[in-house]
Every structure is written in structure tokens, then in C-alpha cells.
Design a protein that fits this description.
The protein has 493 residues and is α/β, with parallel strands linked by helices. It is built from 17 helices and 13 strands. Strand 1, helix 2 and strand 2 form a beta-alpha-beta unit. The longest helix is centred in the last third of the chain and has 25 residues.
Amino acid sequence: MMQLTSVLKFLENRTILVTGATGFLAKIFVEKILRVQPNVKKLYLLLRAQDHNAALQRFKNEAVEKDLFKLLREKYGANLNTFISQRTTIIPGDITCDENLGVKDSNLLQEMWREVEVIVNLAATTNFDERYDTALELNTLGAIHVLNFAKKCSKLKVLLHVSTAYVSGEKTGLILETPYNLGETLNGTSGLNIHTEKKVMEETLKQLRFEGCSEEAITAAMKELGLERARKYGWPNPYVFTKALAEMVLGDLKEDVPLVIFRPTIVTSTFQDPFPGWVEGIRTIDSLAVGYGKGKLTCFLGDPDAIIDIIPADMVVNAMIVTMMAHADQRGSQIIYHVGTSVSNPIEFTCIQDCAFHYFREHPWIDKQGKPVIVGKVNVLSSMDSFRRYMALHYLLPLKGLEIVNTVLCQFLQAKYLELHRKIKFVMRLIDLYGPYLFFKGIYDDMNTEKLRRAGKAAGIEMDVFNFNPKSINWEDYFSNTHIPGVVKYVLK
């Protein structure tokens, strides 16, 4: 049964290891703990870097100096760096290396095995179009290395592994918080095995190098391999496939490690913590909003009535922190949390679209010439067939015409032809990757998360400090006044 005590008390004097420490969620997690519990004992922050100095520099540039840390800067002023260096140990490492996570300093390793009580595995690649070797090494094999590291930590209370809700592939209806068993596939194809996947990946890579392929050709071939392997077993892309594989293997190999698997849906800008609207990099749905605001998107593909499951980043982090406390010391247990909104506070695709339309109408994007971009209503194509027809009429026909004219004019228009050809290929690739999500018919049951929230409230713990109640979001207000302005400020600037 869950042991619910004060979350702030749980964090006091606690030693936590975070992998992928410069990632979007990881930084929000680190900032939150430093801000609400300055008496945390130690945060070991693992990130990729050449050496210790490079790691410090990277954490400073990519985390501490960002707006995200502004409340801490206001609180500590000139002493901020001292405070952070007392509470954190920045470690150059790499979870793809081995079960020492690429940590070279043997004294530091011994110290971590002795001291670490909570491990939060956030190191991952979230790119849908990733090379298969990169995705498999980081998302699957890396997760196994973290588990093996966890087994050596004598004080370990809990291992929190951050996965994604989309390990469900294209399932429809209510998707439950249940684990995937070893070898389970989404389309019933048998023979899924992590060792086979590793072998296929390594042999393909070896063959490509043996044939003397260019790095560019190798990258393209490895991306294709990732799509092919994922789709063979029913997953839409190598990202969600390698994340699903990781869940299977962790569940199988965990032994007595208390394991929590966290499956957030599409993560968006912060709702309130440390302040509303902080975001970094173009998240999944934002690439559309950005393209639209800049006047580059005149048509879009998707079911207007589809429920898009999104969750603000700070809610994900708050739920993570509360689950660490709730599942500490539950030897050999495994629990899965869906953190999303499609059950408790669903939002339709059209709502996001309307908010973007109104926002960019009132605050138009100013282009390079200093002119405001006037946006219109987007032509929404609600099926793959209508999209193909639209593309054929607006792009493929002109391309064919251009090809004929180009031949007549002795390749005079070759550059123009190639450019259009490249654009069409790019759009088709994006649709191929995102297509499954644009017509997604699943909703994510979040019963475990809801139970935790209710239990926390009943136990009187600090649920106001760690709010992850999706019902507290007013979507129209969030998109118009928090999220889109955040994207414009932090991503488009």
C-alpha cells in the first residue's frame, strides 16, 4: 500500500540521481526541487559532456541561465551558483555506455552506489524520425543500464522510469495503465526479442560501413530501418517502439527494485510552476501552431473532433515527485501511471486551432521584412484520402507540369523543380510520421494517477504545491494566454 507522508519532508535530506539532466522535463524537475526543498541533500545530475568542466558549462548554459531559474535567481541573487553547487553534483556520463552510465571516476561511482536513494531516468531521444541505432541504444539499452546501476545502490527506495503514453501505438478506445509483457506486440506478430533487435541494428550498421556508405546515407538507412522494425510489430515509429521495448525489459529484469513507469501524453509549456508558459524547443503540436502563425500552413490534416491528449510539463513533474514519495521502499513492485487529460479534461483539436487563429489574428507574427503575417482559417482535411487529393492537385500536378517544362527548357528550371520536389517529400515524411496521431482514437485511462491525487488530498499532503489535477486547467485560457504566448516568447524569438 502507498505510504503517504509530507512530500517536502520526503525530499528533505534526500539523494536523487537524474539522468538526461538538461532535458526539458529534467530541468523543470531539478528547479522545482531546489526551489521548494532547499534542504535536499544531493541531486546527482548526469548529462553528456566531454569532461567535468564541459558538463558544468553545459548545465549552466542549458539550465541555470534560462528563464526557468528566474525565481531561484530572485531568491538567491549572487549566491545562486554557490547554492546550486552545494546541492548538486554535475556528472559527465552517458547511459548508453555501460551499467556505470559512462561515469569514469571510480570514487564518485562508489559514493553514488552508497548514497543514491531515488533514480529518475529521463535520458531519452524523443525524435519520431530517429536513427534506429540511436533510439535503441538510448531508449532501450540505456534503460537497462540504468536498472543495473539501480541494483547496485544499497539505499535505493525507488526507480522512476519516464516512458510515454504512446507506447500504446494506435490502439483505440480506453487505454489502460497496464504493463507490456516481454515479446508482446501490437499486431500479434511473434518473435519480438530485444537481442534480435540489437543484432539486426548492429549488423545493418556494419554492412553499411563495410560498403563504404557516406554518413548521410547511413543516417537515412538507419532511419528507414527504425520505421521498418517498429511497423513490423505494430508501432508507428522507432521512438515509441524503443520506449515500449524498454518497459518490457525493465518489467522483466527488475527483480526487487521498486519500479514506477511514468507515461505522460504530449507535454506542453508549464501551467503555473515556476511561472506559466515556460517551454523549450518545438514540442509535437507546436510545430503546427508555429507554421500556421508564420503563414506557412494553409491546410492541415487531422480529425477536427479528435481529442488531443496534452499535459503541461509542471503537472508531469509534480506527479513524478508525489509518486516517488508514494512508492518508496515497495520492493519488487511495478506500477504504471498515465499522466494526461483525455479522460478527466478532454480538449478537441478544433479548440487548439481556434485559439491559434484568434491569437495570431490579434498578435500577428512579424516577418523578416517587418510585415505582419495575416492568418486565415486553415483548410482542415479530415482524411488521408482528402489530403492525398489536395497534395495531388496543389503540388504534384504543378510538379509534373514543372518537370515537363523543365525538360523542354533543357533543365533551366532544375533548381526550382528540385526545391518543390524536396518540400513535397518533406511534407509527405512528416505526415507519414505524425499521421497516426492526427487521427488518434484512443483515450488514456489515468485511474492510478487519479487515485494518487485523491489519496494525497485525503492524507492532507501538499497537493497545492504539487498540483497535477487536470481539471484545474481551463483550456481556452491556457492556450490563448499561456501556451501560445510561451511558444512565441521562448521558441520563436
